[in-house]
Amino acid sequence: MPFQVAESRSTSKSALYDQLASQLSSLLAGERDLIANAANFSSLIFHSLPDLSWAGFYFVKDDELVLGPFHGQPACVRIVIGKGVCGTAALTRITTIVPNVHEFPGHIACDSASNSEIVVPLMKGDRLIGVLDLDSPLYGCFDNEDESGLNRLASLFVELTDWQYVYAPIGAKYL
Q1: Tens-place pLDDT, residues 125-156
Q2: Strand pairing report for 78-80 and 64-72
Q3: CB-count burial class (<10 Å; 0-12, 13-18, 19+) for 53
């Protein structure tokens, strides 16, 4: 039976995130590969959450975030930790919601159609391993329910994935 993504228009946001958590757990069950899991996770989000133009990952390598699996338009390949929305969320290790990216100091415009963004740091214990990045062409697309739901999904992803192949070596500044 083919995998079915959550029906986003007919449920509340909290119910949608509950469905996505269940689907993500099922989708990643029995597979621990980083690239495979990140690809399926980004696809699930991109096809389930409304009004997205981009959903994907950046993983830590040295002092940069390096593009990982994603869905959407081609993206910036490398982002310096501390620069742009992704780099700021990585540096602070705090989920960052930006209602209008054009007002964010130092915003990196990979896609000119992006108007709002949410970035969730991926943590393995106290180590930063990357970020989950979602963009929308709508202003103010993301809220506290998205923050809570995406943090829950990111935690599941980290828990259900092997990280021995993550780019940054053990003891790196940000890992």
Answers
A1: 999 999 999 999 999 999 999 999 999 999 99
A2: antiparallel
A3: buried
Q: What share of the chain is helix, strand, coil (3-state, %, to 5)?
A: 35, 25, 40
DSSP string, 138-175: STT---HHHHHHHHHHHHHHHHTS--TT-SSPTT-S--
User: Could you give phi then psi for residue 49, rounded to 5 degrees?
Assistant: -90, 140
| H-type alpha helices, the chain | 13-28, 34-48, 84-92, 144-159
Overall average pLDDT of the 151-167 stretch: 87
Distance CA 168, CA 148 (A): 27
Which whole-number Å values give the CA distances from 74 to 21, 43, 68, in the listed order?
A: 27, 15, 11
> What gap in Å lies between CA 49 and CA 142, rounded to an integer?
11
- Encoded tokens for 7: 């029906």
